[in-house]
Structure formats: C-alpha cells, structure tokens
C-alpha cells in the first residue's frame, strides 16, 4: 500500500546502485512501456489506485489504449528482454493456486519463465500458492529452479517449505555462468532463483500457515476470483499479521534486489 510501495521502490533502486548495477524499474505509463522510471513517475504509479495488473495477455491492450499499469513477473520479463536486460528482482512469482484442479487458476508467469531468457530472482512462489504443484509445472516446462544457498524451497515470508530446491548454487558468479551456459546450448527460457528471506526478517512457515488458511477462507466466502485473488489474500494477510507480512515482504524484495545486482554485475 501507498506510501510504503513508493518508498520501497526508491530504496530498491538505491540497493541496486550500491551493489554495482544499474536499476531500471519497469511499468506501463500512459501506454508507454517504461524501462526505468523518473522519481515522479515512480511516485505517481505508487499512488495510482486503478492501475492495471499487466501480464502477457493484456500488455498490448494497455499500450494500445494508453493505460497505466504495474507489470507482473511475466510482463516484466517481456519488457526486460526487449530492452536487453538479463536479470531482474521481484518479491515472489505467481504459480499454481490452491484448488487449481477445479479452478485452473495458474499464473502466466510459469509459461513466461519457460519462453523468455531472463533470470528472475525471487523468494520463491508466493506462499499463498500450491508450491508443490508450481514446482511440478516448472519442471514440466523445463524451467531450472535454483535455490540460492539453500536446499529447500523458500516460501516467500518463510525461509523453508517442505519441498526441496531442484538445484542449488551459492555464488552470483555461478548463477551467471549457468545462465551463459544455457544460452550457449540454445536451451531457451529463463531461470528462477529462489532466494530465502533473511533469517531475522522471516515469519516461520507454521505461523504463516494459519494466516494463509484464514485469508483463503475469507476469499472463498466472498467469491473472490481471477486476478483479484492474489491482491485480496495479500491484503487480508497484512491485516491478520498486524503489518508484519509487509515488513517481511519489503525485506525479501530488498534482499532479492541485492542478489540480482550481483548476478547482473557477474554477467
């Protein structure tokens, strides 16, 4: 929520600069895909209550209709690749929603990771999702999932989930070398880096599970569906945790930006 979102974006850019890379916040502003925002554009976007949430399906629509919107992981990958950017940081990726066997609610982020050659540094899939099914889809689509210094998948607000990270690398230089090797082999697609939130900032998984279940029950009671599900759940969890989830969310984004900058520098 504003003003935390604008302050976080500004601080993330500073972290990237401090770690030797060039920040370029991506968004669509009045129909233009912007690779890097001015301070005014960043603040304006943070304040905009009706900004679209853009993925591959509606990115072109927003440009054609001169709309303004924030970009999902999928749309950010597309824009980054167009601009020659090979690595970007986010909080957590979208994935397979719980109950997807009935709703078929699966994020376009997963397909984009399979088709667009960009390194995405995240804290794993958002913990509100079905992490196990998300990993299965990524494996089917040929997307390498790399735990950064960890052998279990992080779960966004929590450092650990019950699921193993398919691959593990410890140094930004190793991640950069892995990316270059995949490019040389013409394997296509991106790489998902799962980077655990710092230990002193996490909310343990057992504690988070209760908040997530309560938020999901609230969403079901109100028949929330489609693109509205994730923002609703995150807002409800913010309320249930008394603001702790936001503090952890900011910490993990900053941590991901730090690692992404180091990978970019190594490339």
Description:
- About 50% of the residues lie in helices and about 10% in strands.
- The chain has one domain: Indigoidine synthase fold (3-Layer(aba) Sandwich), CATH 3.40.1790.10.
- A hairpin with a 2-residue loop joins strand 1 (about 25-30) and strand 2.
- It contains eleven helices and nine strands.
- It is an alpha/beta fold and about 270 residues long.
- Helix 1 runs antiparallel to helix 2 (about 40-45), helix 1 (about 5-20) packs parallel to helix 11 and helix 8 (about 170-185) crosses helix 11 (about 245-265).
- The longest helix has 23 residues, at about 245-265.
Topology of this protein?
Blueprint: H1 4-18, E1 26-29, E2 32-35, H2 39-47, E3 52-54, H3 56-64, E4 69-71, H4 73-82, E5 87-89, H5 100-103, H6 108-115, E6 119-122, H7 131-140, E7 145-148, E8 167-169, H8 172-184, E9 191-194, H9 205-221, H10 229-240, H11 244-266
Parallel strand pairs: 3-4, 5-6, 6-9, 7-8, 7-9
Antiparallel strand pairs: 1-2, 1-4
């Amino acid at each position: 929520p504003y003003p935390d979102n604008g302050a976080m974006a500004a601080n993330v850019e500073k972290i990237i600069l401090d770690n030797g890379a060039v920040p370029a916040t991506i968004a669509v502003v009045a129909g233009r895909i912007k690779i890097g925002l001015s301070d005014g554009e960043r603040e304006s976007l943070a304040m905009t209550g009706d900004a679209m949430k853009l993925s591959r399906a509606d990115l072109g629509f927003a440009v054609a209709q001169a709309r303004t919107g924030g970009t999902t992981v999928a749309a950010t990958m597309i824009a980054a690749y167009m601009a020659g950017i090979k690595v970007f940081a986010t909080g957590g990726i979208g994935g397979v929603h719980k109950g997807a066997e009935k709703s078929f609610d699966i994020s376009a982020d997963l397909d984009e990771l399979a088709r667009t050659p960009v390194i995405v540094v995240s804290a794993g899939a958002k913990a509100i999702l079905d992490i196990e099914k998300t990993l299965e889809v990524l494996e089917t689509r040929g997307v390498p999932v790399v735990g950064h210094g960890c052998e279990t998948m992080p779960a966004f607000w929590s450092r650990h989930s019950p699921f193993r990270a398919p691959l593990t690398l410890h140094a930004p230089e190793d991640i950069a070398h892995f990316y270059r090797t995949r490019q040389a082999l013409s394997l296509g697609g991106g790489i998902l880096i799962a980077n655990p939130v710092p230990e002193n900032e996490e909310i343990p998984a057992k504690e988070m599970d209760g908040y997530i279940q309560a938020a999901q029950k609230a969403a079901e009671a109100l028949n929330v569906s489609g693109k509205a599900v994730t923002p609703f759940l995150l807002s409800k969890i913010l309320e249930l945790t008394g603001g702790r989830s936001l503090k952890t969310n900011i910490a993990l984004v900053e941590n991901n930006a730090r690692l992404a900058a180091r990978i970019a520098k190594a490339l």
